[in-house]
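Quick board copy: two proteins, each given as sequence then tokens.
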Amino acid sequence: VKPGALLEQIRKDHQELEDAFRALPDNERQSFEMSYASPVSTGRLTLTPYSERSRTADEIVRDLNQQLADSHTLDSIRFDVDANGPPVGDPVAVRVISDNPESLGRAINQVEQWMQNYPGLININTSDKLREPQLQIVPDYDWLARYQLTVNDLASTLRTGFEGDTMTSTWIGDDEVDIRLILDDSHRTLEQLLLTKIFTPDGEAVPLSRLAKINTVNAPRQILHMNGSVQVLVTAQIDDIDLSPEQVAGDLLTALTPKMPGDVKLETGGEAEETGETLSGLMVAFPVAMLAIYLVLMVLFNSLLQPLLVVSVIPFGFAAALLALKVHMQPISLFAMIGVLGMTGVIVNNALVLISQANDLKATGRPATEVILDAASGRLRPILLTSITTVAGLTPLAYGIGGTDIYMGPMSLTLGYGLLLSLPVVLFVLPCLYLVLDRVITKGQ
């Protein structure tokens, strides 16, 4: 919408968007609200629970984009899907960083053109796209010096002319209210601004037009910085389920980084950056967790080698969890990795129960083969019952039975499948490893 447009005109221009929301079926639209402003209006469309509708939120967004693609009143429309979880960035986001305005502009155009030619990307936007007309006052320092004036004197006079000045105050009830003297709207125009008089220390009235130049510019609504340098964020949405943010970001950096001048830097953001931060954090947290588990087991078993048996089942569970994500075409996300960590604790508990039972039986002096067979058969039912009931409880959440949660779903998927597929390892592979370790210890003695 044109900056400064009247509220009535804004609502008229947005009628097409409201009609598209109202046209949604009752089983998809729960409510919507709009906050009108210029040049940007915002709103929120609340959908019904997924179990009550046949289309996903992404499918509804694609349909709305197609309906409003040829709008004559709306310059650009952007829909962001919010699943009431923690805030996430745009699927594809690239920071273009430079202190050289010309290089920055050329780099932005290159990134936009690359995204437009990349199949599967829609709604390409830049953070500096929305601009508003502003008056830029450029001081003439030579004339200011001649009249013994400063930039502060210039700014103070302009502020008084446009915002007025506090003359006195009064009390309304228990509140003290300032009374300001301000010019009429007819005197607060560009023409009158040029005639505004500024008094010198000698009492001479000098017009503003002699002390400064006034330019009308279209300035960005927001100016972003990264480490002190100007940055522009170029974002896009993904319209292809086979594309991942990491793949797009990698292809973009590979294609454009060599073409960028030396004073321009490209950095990925959005979901790709958050995924990278998540994985880097887990690369630290996971080894620390494994070390903590090993130390606790070392104290419990009073041994340096037996804890390795328990920890050895973790890689199998980890691989099973990642395989579940691959089969279900789910990305590696923060909540999915939290599910992996939770799964680690459960399978360690299963292995711990088995090894502990074997150690108790071995203390009676029986052979290791009989001990591990009795321990495995004796703990078969408890391990199966606890694991299967846990998996059964997680299945509805993992597959969205009764309602889909895009954050809890991946977590339950990795936890459930990691636990289920690690059962054969605990029940068959772990006893074999126990026998191997017992023979190694026996030979060493």
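And the next:
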Amino acid sequence: MSPKAQPSFLARVRAALPRLHPTERRLADFVLSFPGELASYTATELARLANVSNATVTRFVRKIGYAGYEEARQHVRAERQTGAALYRVAASGAEAGDLVVRHAEQGAANLEQTLGALSLEEIDALAEALLTVRRVWIVGFRSGAAFAQYLAWQILQVVERVSLIPGPGETLGEHLAGIGAEDCVVVFGLRRRPAKLEAILDQIVRSGARIAYVTDESLAPDRRVSWHLRCQTAAPGPLFSHVSVMGLCHLLATRVIERAGQDGRRRLTAIESLHDALDEL
């Protein structure tokens, strides 16, 4: 069975519930709430956390379709990398004392590693493309949607030809049909990525457009795109940190505005004049 067709760990547990012994059911209830613990603990440690015996753990993993505990743990470990918050919640609870400091330190480290892996030449080449192509298309789903909207909003100050897609009620196909080789597409592909994102990216590649692909560090460099900007997203809790993604968007938008030249300044002046005339801000 291919990894794509393999039932998830949680699906296996839910399917087995009706045939479990009461103590196995107690273990099942525990792992349904804290599935990531299998990736972190030995069978003995899991048994102690769930208040069951080692033998119960062994019977349980076999009943849900694994040859042994290690196979189940490897499956959970792989699924944990997809980004599901449920897999990253700890049963024991994190110590809260220095939580703010740990979040700040990890966010700073993520930002430093992400921007440190880039060069100004690389960022400026992308900024120049955004300023000179026929049209800029920006695509984002789930967590990436917020960053797509932020980047589109910021560069719109100097780039008129920006399309944030898809809009409410629109299909992506309605926009992909209009993308051509003279365009640039910024695609946000952060965990957890939609299942169809790879097919969408393939379609954009076939259009011949230049592509900037913004992802987390879990993806290997993608040679199909012009720019693959990989952001570090480690965090001390169940949610990935997107500090580095925002930092990247801010840097890119700043360079777009700074490199926009006289045309950009004229547009900025016109926008500010309209803000005053309409008393908008």
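Board note added afterward: Strands lie at 136-140, 162-165, 184-189, 210-216, 227-231.
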